[in-house]
Please model this.
Amino acid sequence: MSVINPRPGPKSGPARPDSPLRYASQGASAALCAVAAMAAVSALALWLLDAGQVGSMWSLTMALTALAVGGSVNAGSDTAGATTGSGIGDLLGGLFGGGGMAPSMSGAADVAPLGVTLAGALMLWGVFSRQLHQRRCDTRELAARAGGAAAAALVAVLVVASLAHGTFSMPASAMSGLRDGQRVGSGGFAGGEGDLMGGLFGGGGTPQDMTMAYEVHAGAAGVGAVLWAAVVLAVGCLISRKVRMPLGGTVDRLRPAWVPGIAAIIRTLLVVAAVPLVLVTLLGAVVGGRAATAAGAALLLVPNAVAVFLTLGVGSPWTASTEQVQSEGGNPFAALMGQMGGQQASTPPDRTAHLRDLAAGGWPLWLGALTVTALLLLGCAYRAAKATDPARTPPLHRYRGPFGPHLGFAERFAVGTALIMGAAAWLAGASGHFGITMFGSEMGGTRAELTGNVLVTVVFGLLVGGVAGLAGCSLRGVVDRRSRLFVRRKAPQETTTVSGMEVSVGNR
Model:
């Protein structure tokens, strides 16, 4: 009797889902974790700074998170909920209350708290790469995960930016310059005119806190979020040791020669920025008081300071400047103030400080920065040279002499140094503006900037990186030769018998 076996059906148990949608959702989860980490770090920094006394912690946290990925914040007088007192500001506000005719204050800030940015980047890559450990993904999976991460970062940051609006109280001490009769715009005032100007924003002779409203530019934050996610994932894929990505034939061929130097510099910078950040934050949280305030500021800006210091060592001409903004033409109130009698107060001069001219402990700051940067780059070059096969680093030109591998390694290390230092100089820059507006135009204000020349940083980065790369590769050669000599000297001796005599034969 024959038995006909039925056609085998599908295997029991759930099939392993490998659809692009699943990969995209996992990439999105990494981005959401990164945004949550940035919000947590922002909240911790604001708590250490005791920012709850000047505004809503929730709104300020959202604003800092949006700034960390490239957003910018604008602020202005809160005309809806704030009162200007019983002075001239009330009178002018009643007479010219519409169309921006009433006196108001405005400000803007464009600065990236790189401590928050760094925390989000580490979380993004940590979660993203953990999903790929111990297996090799294909191009389709990598693209789906990266696309999901970028899309989630865009949506999450847009939501954060939409929530980043509120009010904060500006202390009366910030208005002391106006109360003391400093010149605003082209019209100077002192004495009675100073009291007149003080009355615009506080009535009477007693200074009052001013409430200002702020909001974040959502478009810039959204674009910055996509670029931030793309750069973090691209750099992670290039320098990762545990996760091997199918980046294409050309990239895979270039990786052994180019990536060791770039990876060594990036990992060193992460350690240099993260270690003091964590230590200062823990110390401030435990001690409290002024130490907590310093820790809050360090949590936000230590990576910025590290970037400025190291690029200053490379040769970037960093400058910190304040500039008095003159009144726009056609402002009748500014012209009136300029023609009023009384003693005229001089305009505060513009100030520019070159960081390379500063001194610390009697030594020029640039010399200390150069020493630290050179030692770090030398260590990075030595570490990268140990991980690089000399046969894979031919010179980028036609020279093929005995120093060819050394020159090839130095050239590639110089390019990596220039790119990283140039990016650091660009990210660490900051600017801010504060002004007074009346009759629809700005009467005056102050603009502050901290800038470094990115192009000069790149050029000097090539030079310093090339020297460090050549020195590091040469040092690796010296260490290798000494190591081989030491091994030969410690090699076991062999004995053999020649004509009845024992002769020791070294392992040469």
About this structure: The radius of gyration is 31 Å. DSSP finds 14 helices and twelve strands in the chain.
